[in-house]
Amino acid sequence: MRGSRYEAPYNRPMYIVAIAWLYVTLLVAAMEHTLLAGVMGFCFYGLLPVALLLWLGGFSSRRRRRLLANQGPHPRDAENTKGDQ
Fold it and tell me: For the chain, which terminus, N or C, has the lower number of CB atoms within 10 Å?
């Protein structure tokens, strides 16, 4: 599947949404009455949902990498590793 249009090293739109959400929750947490409430709010409606989103969004790429690693080398790759003689 190397070179297909579905393969990407990262999912750029997902990271943009995650960064924007963290920015908004940081601003909301800064408006809390106490520091503890701000930190807890940022963790519970900022960091934890973003971590879950990124973890769930990475399932297909992790599965694809695991399957490719278990397949072993491609037969054409074995011809290229013989070296120049």
Answer: C
55-82 per-position pLDDT tens digit: 887 767 777 777 777 876 666 665 656 5
**Domains of the chain by residue range:** 12-69
- Is this model's pTM higher than 0.70 or not? no
20: closest CA among 1, 51, 43, 46?
46
Beta carbons of 53 and 18 less than 8 angstroms apart: yes
- What's the rounded Cα separation, in Å, for the pair 43 and 52? 12
Residue 4 clears pLDDT 70, i.e. is over it? no
Structure tokens at 18: 């995650």
Tokens of 4: 């297909």
Q: Are 50 and 22 in contact (CB under 8 A)?
A: yes
Please name the residues in contact with 40: beta carbons below 8 A apart, sequence gap of 6 or more. Answer: none
